[in-house]
UniProtKB/TrEMBL annotation:
<dbReference type="GO" id="GO:0032993">
    <property type="term" value="C:protein-DNA complex"/>
</dbReference>
<dbReference type="InterPro" id="IPR038390">
    <property type="entry name" value="Metal_Tscrpt_repr_sf"/>
</dbReference>
<dbReference type="GO" id="GO:0046872">
    <property type="term" value="F:metal ion binding"/>
</dbReference>
<comment type="similarity">
    <text>Belongs to the CsoR family.</text>
</comment>
<dbReference type="InterPro" id="IPR003735">
    <property type="entry name" value="Metal_Tscrpt_repr"/>
</dbReference>
<keyword id="KW-0805">Transcription regulation</keyword>
<dbReference type="GO" id="GO:0005737">
    <property type="term" value="C:cytoplasm"/>
</dbReference>
<dbReference type="GO" id="GO:0000976">
    <property type="term" value="F:transcription cis-regulatory region binding"/>
</dbReference>
<keyword id="KW-0479">Metal-binding</keyword>
<protein>
    <submittedName>
        <fullName>Metal-sensitive transcriptional regulator</fullName>
    </submittedName>
</protein>
<keyword id="KW-0678">Repressor</keyword>
<dbReference type="Pfam" id="PF02583">
    <property type="entry name" value="Trns_repr_metal"/>
</dbReference>
<keyword id="KW-0804">Transcription</keyword>
<keyword id="KW-0238">DNA-binding</keyword>
<keyword id="KW-0186">Copper</keyword>
<dbReference type="GO" id="GO:0001217">
    <property type="term" value="F:DNA-binding transcription repressor activity"/>
</dbReference>
<keyword id="KW-0963">Cytoplasm</keyword>
Length: 103
């Protein structure tokens, strides 16, 4: 089973906040372009690193929000249904948390 959209399927947990996430990611995209420009303009390395840290924090915030939405919607729904789908969703959430902790 994939996470591809399926006709008549329930929306993803983040769907009600999709525009907010898209807006935040566009902001991050602009920050990354700004960092590239700083490098091109030979800006002070500590200033570049400060901006990279800000981008990392912004991405981490988006990731944690999406994880929270996933736990509150997808995992909760699967656990209520029980069975192998619940185990799958719990394993996915655990793997996602492990990836976030490593980054």
């Amino acid at each position: 089973m994939t996470d591809e959209p399926v006709e008549n399927a329930a929306p993803h947990g983040y769907s009600p906040h999709k525009e907010n996430y898209a807006k935040r990611l566009r902001r991050v995209e602009g920050q990354v372009r700004g960092i590239a420009k700083m490098i091109e303009e030979d800006k002070y390395c500590i200033d570049v690193l400060t901006q990279i840290s800000a981008v990392n924090s912004a991405l981490q915030s988006v990731a944690l929000g999406l994880l929270d939405e996933h736990l509150g919607h997808c995992v909760t729904h699967a656990v209520a249904e029980g069975g192998p789908e619940a185990e799958k969703k719990l394993a996915e959430a655990s793997a996602a948390i492990a990836r976030l902790v490593k980054s």
